[in-house]
Amino acid sequence: MDGQRLRAWRPPVPGIAEVLHARFVTHAYPLHTHDAWTLLVVDDGAIRYDLDRHGHGAVTDQVTLLPPDVPHDGRAATPGGFVKRVLYLDRDVVGPELTGAAVDHPALADPLLRRRVAQLHQVLDGPGDELHAESRLALVVDRIRGHLGAPAQRDPAPPGKLARDLRDLLDAHVTSGLTLDDAAARLGAHPTHLVRAFTAQFGLPPHAYLIGRRVDRARALLLAGQPAAGVAAEAGFYDQAHLTRTFRRYLGTTPAKFGAGAARRTDTPPPAL
């Protein structure tokens, strides 16, 4: 397989049809099209490709965006091959009206965008952080649309009210959760504006606020004597591993050890008079 590696999955995140991480050395993609936007970053090596019969290159300090339905191919531009990470985005995420601009300028030399795309891949690598992934995707798409000449999205509602209304929604869905698109539809605001308004108002993004509320709920359940094995679902975490991982990050210990103190306190007999 000459060092080839490939991993692909479909995350439960609206707008992302597929995530693909791969390393190729000699493999060359034939001419083909996708029905989705191809958002590509190269982590090592370089890629040569033709898009709509024009030659281009993809390198490590750029973000490459290929529009749906436009023929392209791909091959290694260096002897050692290349390592890439790809997001396939539903065609309405970026917008079909920007196809022409993307064909003309598929390479985006933007360090902040490059960093945000890499961060989005990190979030997508594990389940349970879908709101976080949606928030990062909204910021990535907003910046891409700006590069392609799309007008800025504007919302008429005051940012402070939007932020407070979103906080109320998050408080009402601590366990069940909600998608950013659902929140945006309920509040009549663009997803990117929601993320920015909330962060400006409360000093942290919506996903971080929600995780904090879930940690608080888990702590209360553990201190009430509930076994750690049953707390994850009731507090809104994806599974026990997600709860444990988050608990370690926030509190430096595991849920079981945190709850053990409450159990010992309950089991200790009262002092003799």
Automatic annotation (TrEMBL):
Recorded hits in Gene3D superfamilies, A to Z, give: Homeodomain-like
UniProt KW DNA-binding keyword:
yes
Q: Which residues form the HTH araC/xylS-type domain?
A: 164-261
What are the alphabetically sorted keywords of the record? DNA-binding, Transcription, Transcription regulation
Q: Which domain of life is it from?
A: Bacteria
What InterPro entries does its record include?
Answer: AraC-bd (IPR003313), AraC_XylS_family_regulators (IPR050204), Homeodomain-like_sf (IPR009057), HTH-like (IPR037923), HTH_AraC (IPR018060)
Q: Name one Pfam family in it.
A: AraC_binding
Keyword Transcription part of the UniProt annotation: yes
Q: Which SMART domains match?
A: HTH_ARAC (SM00342)
Q: Name the chain's protein.
A: AraC family transcriptional regulator
